[in-house]
Amino acid sequence: TTRGVDDTRRRRAASRAAMPERRYTCAALVSGGKDGVLAAIETSRRADATVACLVNLCPRDAATHEVDSHCFQTVAHECVGAFAACAGLDVYRRRIEGRSKALGLEYGDGEEGDEVEDLRAALAAAKRERPDVNSVCSGAILSDYQRLRVEAVCASLGLTSLAPLWRVEQREVLRRVEAEGVDARLVKVAAMGLDPGKHLGMSIADARETLIRVEDEYGSHCAGEGGEFETLVVDCPMFARASLAITETRTVKTSEDRFAPSGHLVIDAFDVVLKEKGDEIAPGRVIWVEDDAPRVRASATASATLEFTAETEGCVAVTGTTCRVHHTIGLVGSILSVSLRAADPASETHETCAEAIFQTMRALVAEKLGEDGATEAWRNVAMTHVYLDNMNQFATVNGVYSRYMPSVAPSARACVATCLPGDAKVQIDCLFILDGGNERKSLHVQSLSSWAPACIGPYGQSIRVNGLAYVAGQIGMEPTTLDLVPGIVAQLDRAMASAVAVADITGAPLGERALAVTFYTSAKYNADYEAEGVHPANVMSASFERVVAQSGRRFLWRPTTTYLTVTDLPKNAIGEIAPTLLVGTGPLGDEESFEGEETLVRESVRGDSACDVMESTSVRRPRRFLQCSISVKRAVLNSDELTDGHILARIALYLGEAELTASHVSTCRLYHNLSVDSALSETLASAIRRVYDVPIIVVPVVACGLTPATAADVVIEIFARRDDRHT
């Protein structure tokens, strides 16, 4: 008997150990419609999440059924309070006092009098009464406008945003509604092909074929994402206690348009119908939130201002410390490139090093552009690279990063640990694109979804500007949990899938539009790679080639690629993928007439050259842009051969083929392995700098090359383009 009890205890302990830790206690945003309810159901099905309460916003006047809102559905609001009785969950309700006031895509720190502040008030009240609530789920599918506002409010309240339906295909949403047993009725229609007199009151299941036909015929959204219709859920698995029975309605027609009439239902009476054993579940409460929204406070504490002393050209010392910051900065046309590396022989000084880097960078940018220009420039960082000597210091450095980098429309970012020279602890490079007249679009999704990993912090998945898109480094995280996928191949395939997903939303599909791709491999698992007979560089290369082969790529050339082995990656990942993409007609840089993408495809070409000691490749469009990469073995790196032009001549050749000049070179990165010491790399950087007068960003790595099969000692990447400020 004792053995049996012990066995039972062990089994229970093992079962508890195997259960995922509950991460998310969630407040579900519901309007009454299918999307919010479906999102709540999918959240509750997660092993690590539970839905603790519901939150709803409704019109200030109960007799009003539809308000002019950019964010919130209010039709059938008279039924949402009954969700408390149906689900057995408390419903926090807030009357909408504000209006759609801040109409820009980004919401930032808030706008007094905006309807989003009512959402902030409702969520703050739910969190205050339920301190265990740490997350919010919403039914956002395609609307960046709505998602960004939910994310902004969540960030201000310390809540994680979950968006399980984000970017789910519209017909799949309809399929899930039916599969989950969600009985949602049409309570508003406003689209060609839909008729208030015919379709109001129909269930989604009965209307599904009509909705798909209307989408096919008129290009609308079959799941209603374009405002074609709204729904009310009357029964679903979340309604464990009761369902709704609508008993009395009337139709309000809001437009008699011949082609697209519109109207909505007013539900004058309904019953709450208890389910079997429903009386065993206590009904939830309806809690009206009257408090004002809490003021948004700055999330970061102001940093102490450091004092610096110039030591030598390109180096400053932090007064009172042993920290030194080496820097390089250059402005070519509208492209500003800055690189800073902080070194300190003292231990545990990564925070000081990061602070010194950002304060020095701010001073350098202000000196180059003036104070007003610098303020504007910080809103226009396109890509940031962060290099650490120790990935264990990521959280410390990221905390400083978060105090200085913009949180609204932030840059893309790649972060790795590598073998920084000497006592260097942190290196940060920023690429600023200063063209105020060109569209800049930041993709910054902070909600957890099945789409791609969220970027929770001041960096985004991508930045699209001036005909290029810079994609943040993607590692193999499962998007719904942000946990690494186990297994070398599976993890790297997930990283590639995330890069594909981000590129698709950016508007430049990875296989079709990749211009250059950097593949990072972590050296810390070399023994595992050997044991399993698989190397990440080969896996990523093969995966990328499949993406290209399966795409509708029209370019005859393949993108340039750089393969780098570093000491560690975020979350101890195996590999990281960071693409640069051509967007639309690519980087034009001037206002000359352009015939469109056909011209870009026809005129963009690639050149390749190889010998025993040097390999190179380029992609160019004459008189527009050049992307070139050169890999060099150590044998060619003595100063005589440099002046003879083995490397410089190759750069000049590619520029000439692109009909560009040395003055068009805007960025240059130089990667070198450990066989190349800092003196030799500086010799090479100086030789390039003398000719091209551009900052040379030097990054030491474990290994580098242009392909997985060809190891090099140095890889040089050059980007040149014409510019409307600098022809």
Major sheet attributes: 8 strands, mixed
Contiguous low-pLDDT stretches (5 residues minimum) are 1-19
Mean residue pLDDT: 90
Helical content, roughly?
Answer: 25-40%
Query: What integer value in Å does the Rg equal?
Result: 29 Å
Shape annotation: elongated
Q: Please count the beta strands (DSSP E, at least 2 residues each).
A: 33
Query: What strand line-up does the widest sheet have?
Result: 18-19-20-25-23-24-31-32
N-to-C span: 89 Å
Q: Number of helix segments?
A: 18
Strand content: 25-35%
Structural class: alpha+beta
Key features of this structure:
elongated; alpha+beta; 18 helices; disordered N terminus; 8-stranded mixed sheet; 33 strands; 29% helix; 727 residues
Describe the structure.
This protein is α+β, with helices and mostly antiparallel strands and 727 residues long. Helix content is 29%, strand content 30%. The chain is built from 18 helices and 33 strands. The strands form 6 sheets. The protein has an 8-stranded mixed sheet. α4 (116-129) packs across α5, α6 (170-179) runs antiparallel to α8 and α11 crosses α14. The protein is elongated. It starts with a helix and ends in a 6-residue tail after the last strand. The model is unreliable at 1-19 (pLDDT under 50).
